[in-house]
Every structure is written in structure tokens, then in C-alpha cells.
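Minutes, project huddle
Topic: does the predicted pose make sense with IPE bound?
PN asked that the exact inputs be recorded in the minutes so nobody has to dig through chat later. Recorded below.
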Amino acid sequence: MSATTGLQDVSARAGGDASSRSLHVAIIMDGNGRWAKRRGMPRALGHRAGVNALKRTVEAAPDQGVGVLTVFGFSTENWSRPAHEVSELMGLLKAYVESDLERLDREGVRVRIIGRRTGLAPDIQEIIERAERRTASNTKFTLQVAFNYGGRADIADAARAFAEAVERGEAKAADLNEAVFESLLSTSAAPAPDVIVRTSGEQRISNFLLWECAYAELVFQDVLWPDYGPEALSAAITEYRGRDRRYGGIAADDVAVAG
Ligand code: IPE
Ligand code: IPE
Ligand code: MG
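Predicted holo structure (C-alpha cells), as shared on screen:
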């Protein structure tokens, strides 16, 4: 594979001993609207309370053994919401970056925004680029915000990028394998998620990390996202740690007696 295509082998991305390395936790932050409705408040206030929950969770994550936190902030399907709600969510991303970027940078957090850039307003694209540029050399913790993100869109975009490399004569169809394909996804810089959490009691993926979820543990919590924080994160990690990840093999305990 030629260096000019940007296609690279990332087959080692999921490596490492699960008990010693830091975790990649991904969260579908759901339930802002219901949280507000229960209080007789407009949905926008639920989203604003959701930003505070995000701040609490980001703050708590490193001390709980999390090295990468990926949160679902806006899906490619969320454009179907009323225009004022879409604009509230866009404004919240901007406000979050404006208020927290300096502190995140100081604390060694690398910020990455995953998802489609096209379709976002120029001021949002600019703020995303600023956040990524400013924190690019930070290594203590990674915060990935999935924004205008859809798992299917990301897979389709990766497929198109590979097809274009073939059209340019920089790659051959036979070069395509899982590692190459994965390198073209917007999540390629991080290891695969160890656990995907969804709040609010819903038990579905809603187009989040479709490729990356292959061997993630799924944890569903009833808590509405604006009520989330260190305790709920700790409960999710405890549940994850109790799982036996087999990756298609057999349990470690059974290896000795298997043969
Ligand atoms: C999650 O809360 C935030 C986004 C999807 C942007 P919701 O807005 O989906 O809240 P519910 O599901 O209606 O309660
Ligand atoms: C998923 O939640 C998207 C985000 C949390 C950003 P939704 O609330 O949009 O998902 P559905 O519609 O309940 O499946
Ligand atoms: Mg929802």
C-alpha cells in the first residue's frame, strides 16, 4: 500500500492485556429529552444538563482506568429533529469546546471529533479543528466526540475512500483486508471500544460504532444521561469487569481442561 493513500496497517490496534491496559469506554448519552419532560422543562434544558453530565464523566474517567472515552453527541439521524433542537445541539458543542478546551488541554486531554465534517456549519467545523489542533500532542487521556456521526455513514465513507484510492491507481482491490478498511474509519486512531454503554434504559445501538462494536461488551443502564456521573460510570465498569471476553475462543479457565 502506497504511503500517499494514507492507508495503513492498524492490525495491532486492539492488542494488549485486557486487565492491565486502560479501557476504551464508549457511551450513547441518551435520555436528555425524557429527563427534561419529567421536570416539565423544554428538551433544550435536558441537553444543557447533559453537558454537565459529560463534564462530570470526563473528569472522573481517568481515575477509573479509562484511557479513551468516546461519546455519541449527535447522530446522522438526529438531523430529523426539529430545527431548533438541532441548532441547540450544535450550539452546545460549540459552547462546550469554548468553555472547556483550555482546561482539557491543560489536563493533557486529546480531543478528537469523529463523524462527517461535511454538512456541519463552517463555525462548527472551525471549532472542531481548533480543538483537535490545540490538543493534538496530549497523551494522558483521549476524548472522542461522535458528532454528525453514523456507523453506516462512516463505513460507506471508508469504502468510498478505498474505491477512490483504487481509481487513482494507488491501491488494488486485493489489498483490502480488515486492517486496511479499519484504518479508513474515523475511529482508526483509537483502539476498539472495550465496552459500549447506553443510558436511559433503551437497548439498541442506534447506528453507533457498527464496525467497532464487534467484540465490545454492551452495558445498558437505566439512568437518564443528565443524571450520569462518576458513580454510574463506576457501576458500568464494574459490570464490564465481571464479563468474560472470549473473542470466539473459550474461557481462560477452560483452556487447561480443554485438551
Ligand atoms: C440524547 O438525548 C441526546 C441526543 C440524542 C442528541 P435524547 O434527546 O435522545 O433524549 P430522549 O431519548 O428523547 O429522552
Ligand atoms: C442516539 O440516541 C444518538 C445520540 C445519543 C447522539 P437517539 O435518541 O437519537 O436514538 P434513538 O432514536 O432512540 O434510536
Ligand atoms: Mg434518545
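Observations noted during the meeting:
- Residues 87 and 103 are 25 Å apart (CA to CA).
- Residues 29-34, 74, 78, 89, 200, 225 surround IPE (ligand 1) (CB under 6 Å).
No decisions taken; revisit at the next huddle.
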